[in-house]
Design brief:
Length: 480
């Protein structure tokens, strides 16, 4: 198994180089290199390739951000947050769509051979994706669900928990596509086949492996937006292959028997072979759970089981909202968990919308994979001792990447707490057992990841949109 690690940045003296961005830069440069080589083989002016790469870069960046804004608009607290791209937030298909539109406009405006150009772009892009996803793997921003049958390629999170790493899967599958079609490119005589094959290959594996094993916060009819787009892209790819075959047959019926047609449909055979790989990986997730105390950032799917109503203790933990409210939301959360931070704007909207009707109880559930989460939870209780729990809570979520003990003490000073008292509290581990009790209580009611919520005992998992909470709250209010 692969031990869990993160490599977010490299310090070169006073300069901090972010690893993810570095690999994205490598990805574009290497894709450009291979696109130039392919363009020369197909007698395409390499100046056009440079222009297309630049357009793809712009489209990928802007489109990815726009789609993220559309899909996760509740995360943005103000207008300027839209431009804080260094805090993360891009959607691959959004970038792909806008990049393709810009490239398409350029291709037709310059009267280039469409099929030749998109063959070049798609094959070069597959190598770029291979490199770019290595950057995602190194920072583990696409950790997947828990592996039920442990395999050697799983990410060992500790405490007996092993997870899928979907960025690694995507990277290796794109490399496999590149190697296969790089070797076959001169045997495939029909322009457009590589492009169509890439559409089918990528969307097939994106749907079946990558998105199936990833954590998401929004699903429609049990599928993510990316999975629905994958279906559309795969259908487009198949239509293109069929049309190319029909067009080829009209030119020369004999070419079908001589092998040209079989070369066109070689990609389908490759995809079928790839399905065997997909089946092997999917099979690794069947079977019994790895232990009964699975901990990790929660799979973002609403639990709507009517019978799954449990009695959840609120202990003596901090309450936000009217203490006499009829609806109680108990949240089990982790200050270092990015999905927990994503849920914050939604929780604020709930309390504003249902003022006097809903109260929120925050309980700590620090994950083993987050080295600073336990101490951050203790620090929040130390702040609670001085009557500033929620101010400190907000401060921690606003600074998730800086939660060392030194940082925690600094935030106490920023909020005008008695720092001597606070530091003594934190250094003495005064609330260590309190935090562990929260964790044990969460496990007792089936919490296995963060964030997890119980609305009058009804469980909802993940950074769900406001509507998911609203549905349950309205049902509970009607039943009173």
């Amino acid at each position: 198994m692969i031990p869990y690690f993160t490599l977010e940045y490299i310090n070169l003296g006073p300069v901090k180089i972010f690893v993810w961005g570095l690999f994205q830069a490598f990805a574009f440069l290497l894709a450009w290199y291979f696109a130039n080589r392919l363009a020369k083989e197909k007698k395409i002016n390499t100046d056009h390739i440079l222009n297309l790469v630049l357009l793809s870069l712009i489209g990928g960046f802007v489109g990815g951000r726009i789609f993220y804004l559309i899909q996760y608009h509740n995360e943005f607290k103000n207008f300027w947050d839209i431009f804080k791209v260094w805090e993360g937030g891009m959607v691959f298909y959004g970038g792909l769509i806008l990049a393709f539109i810009l490239d398409l406009i350029y291709i037709f405006k310059q009267k280039l051979n469409f099929w030749k150009v998109v063959d070049v772009i798609s094959l070069a892009m597959s190598f770029g994706l291979f490199v770019g996803r290595i950057g995602c793997f190194l920072i583990h921003d696409h950790l997947g669900i828990v592996m039920k049958n442990v395999r050697f390629f799983g990410i060992n999170m500790g405490n007996g928990v092993v997870r899928h790493e979907t960025a690694m899967y995507e990277s290796l599958l794109c490399l496999l596509f590149f190697v296969i079609f790089w070797l076959l490119r001169k045997k495939i005589k029909t322009d457009g086949v590589i492009f169509a094959s890439f559409l089918i290959w990528y969307s097939f594996f994106r749907f079946l492996i990558i998105d199936m094993f990833r954590n998401f916060d929004v699903r429609y009819f049990n599928l993510t937006i990316s999975q629905w787009i994958s279906i559309l892209v795969a259908v487009i790819g198949l239509i293109i292959l069929i049309k190319l075959k029909l067009k080829n047959n009209k030119k020369n019926m004999n070419e079908e028997r001589s092998g040209k047609s079989s070369a066109m449909f070689m990609p389908l055979a490759i995809v079928i072979a790839g399905a065997i790989i997909a089946g092997a990986i999917i099979f690794s997730n069947k079977g019994n759970d790895v232990g009964n105390e699975v901990k990790g950032e929660a799979k973002q799917v609403v639990n709507t089981n009517e019978e799954a109503v449990v009695d959840v203790s609120t202990d003596d933990d901090p309450i936000k909202g009217d203490k006499n409210a009829k609806i109680t939301i108990v949240e089990f959360s982790d200050f270092e968990c990015p999905f927990c931070e994503k849920a914050e704007p939604t929780l604020k909207k709930i309390l504003d919308t249902y003022s006097g009707k809903v109260k929120l109880v925050y309980r700590d559930f620090p994950l083993a994979m987050h080295k600073d989460a336990q101490k951050a939870a203790e620090a929040s209780q130390c702040a609670n001792d001085q009557g500033k729990y929620w101010e400190y809570h907000d401060k921690l979520y606003a600074n998730q990447k800086a939660l060392t003990v030194a940082d925690l003490k600094k935030y106490a000073g920023d909020l005008k707490l008695d720092t001597v008292k606070f530091n003594q509290c934190l250094d003495s581990n005064k609330f260590a057992d309190e935090v562990k009790k929260d964790l044990a209580d969460g496990e007792a009611v089936g919490v296995d990841g963060t964030p997890a919520f119980f609305i009058n005992g009804r469980k909802i998992v993940g950074a769900q949109p406001f509507e998911a909470f609203k549905q349950i709250i309205d049902e509970e209010l009607k039943s009173l």
